[in-house]
Amino acid sequence: MTFTDAKQRFSGRVADYVRYRPSYPPALLELLRGECALRPGHVIADIGSGTGFLSELFLKNGNRVYGVEPNKDMRRAGEEYLASYRREFVRILKPGGWMVIAWNDRRMEEAPFTRDYENILERFGIDYKKVKDSYPEADRIRGFLSAFSLRDLPNYQILDWDSLCGRLRSGSFTPTGGHPNFAPMMEELQKLFGAYQQNGQVRMDYFTRVYYGPLKAGA
Fold it and tell me: Is the pTM higher than 0.70?
């Protein structure tokens, strides 16, 4: 997957992304306050800021946040979403500061619904395995952090049927209407929802994976 492709992956899916993607748990701030000495006066660079979910967490903490987002649709959505906090983005990354890499990943081992949802993505998603394998892990993190720690924080969403459909549509690898995988994918999603729903809702479990450490000199 080229960088150019990566910039365009979420074009056309931004509305679903803003409405149906999970935010980040307050425990992330508690972790960074304790481990990285995060304070309200610190300046944050949110690299790959998307629609602004993570930026909002820091803004509510009193931080000044600079968002860097190459996809123009995602960037525009982030500007609108965070209009009450900031007016423009600049591209910065300060050597010697703390770097934090965080994303929401679905928890599958102990959550049957989430595991079965993952199976639908693997069966019907377009290049899903490539996207899944592209997330950075410890061996790649070592290339630019001189030392780092890893923490997983619990997170979840409660979704009704419409929200579950929107959550699925928000994926960059999800086939759209007209693709041969679309109809059978939605049929399997409806079966999954029927099997697990309670009072018209299901629970999607995640963990927020957090790597943090000082930036390596020259990285």
Answer: no
